[in-house]
Amino acid sequence: MKPGLFVKEKKLQVYGRSPIGEDITLFLSGSGVRFVTDATDVWIELEAVFDRLDLWIEVLVNDELSQRRSLEKGKNRIHLWGGGELRKNREFKILRTTQGYFEDTVSYIKIKDIEANGEFAEVKEKDLFLEFIGDSITSGEGAALTKEEDWVPAVFSCSNDYAYLTAKELDADYNVVSQSGFGLYAAWNGDLTLVIPPHYEQVAGTLGGAENAAAGAQDDWDFGKRPVDAVILNLGTNDQFGFKNLEGKKEQEKFLQDFKATAVDFLKKIRKNNPKAYILWAYGMMGADIKDTIEAAVKEYSLAAGDEKVSLFILPLCTADELGMRDHPTLKGHIKAAKALSEELRGVLSGSVE
Description:
Blueprint: H1 3-8, E1 13-15, E2 24-26, E3 32-37, E4 42-50, E5 56-61, E6 64-70, E7 74-81, E8 90-96, E9 107-116, E10 120-121, E11 128-134, H2 136-139, H3 162-169, E12 172-178, H4 210-214, E13 230-234, H5 237-244, H6 249-273, E14 278-283, H7 291-305, E15 310-314, H8 331-349
Parallel strand pairs: 11-12, 11-13, 13-14, 14-15
Antiparallel strand pairs: 1-3, 2-9, 3-8, 3-10, 4-7, 4-9, 5-6, 5-8
Helix pairs in contact: 3-8, 6-7
């Protein structure tokens, strides 16, 4: 059956900023679908559209990883379950585990068809809905292959990432908007164009090119479709690397001033699109060198706007044994961050969710 029909019948839940038509289009890390069936034989048909950087998915059955695989260009018919006789309801999640690649000319997955020899149960949304905005940490870079040093799609894992783990801990649904190397004001190399804020209001605005645009990446995102309860903003890590590359004191001072101004403006943009959400800036897994500037930006915005539903939370720093591929957090580091973040969110959201 076409996945769009399942959505209308409330037998398929869609994750992420994923356009829904007859098919469902996946642009970003952690985007995908969830369904429950008593079938003993389950198949899914996907179409992978990319040029150079191959796209990977993860399949979870009852929240346990069942498959992690790359997709071939074009149609992929994948056997999700089979070989048994026990009929009972099982929950299936099919997630895009690689981020959207702005470096490639095109980068998306279409869910074309779902087949099963059983009944599909109605799926209900979780009570809590979170959005995570970030960079490579939020994209799960290095969370799959921890010893590899080449920058390849195989190193990414969305289900080993703190965002997925936090949502799981809080029994929440979640969206991810993230891009490796990007910053709030500057990228890891100081590039002022590779930043998240200008693209935040689009479905997957960091993905350029005519084919991505035709598939819906550049469309405006409908924030009212399902308002989030909290926005977790994990940006600043790449900015601090860009800051470190500056040698002159005046250059560094100007960088921090501009970063602060950009941060205040971005908090305004987040609030405009998420009027009832708690905004939690969570940062520090790979160092917190510009913590004071972020703290000042949060305070300035909060006081000027009279907004009490915003704060900064410093995530626990990953130790040497919690870092792997290109000094990115491993599963161990993500688990530690998710535990701390979940506890903080429980506190700030208690009594604040409307």
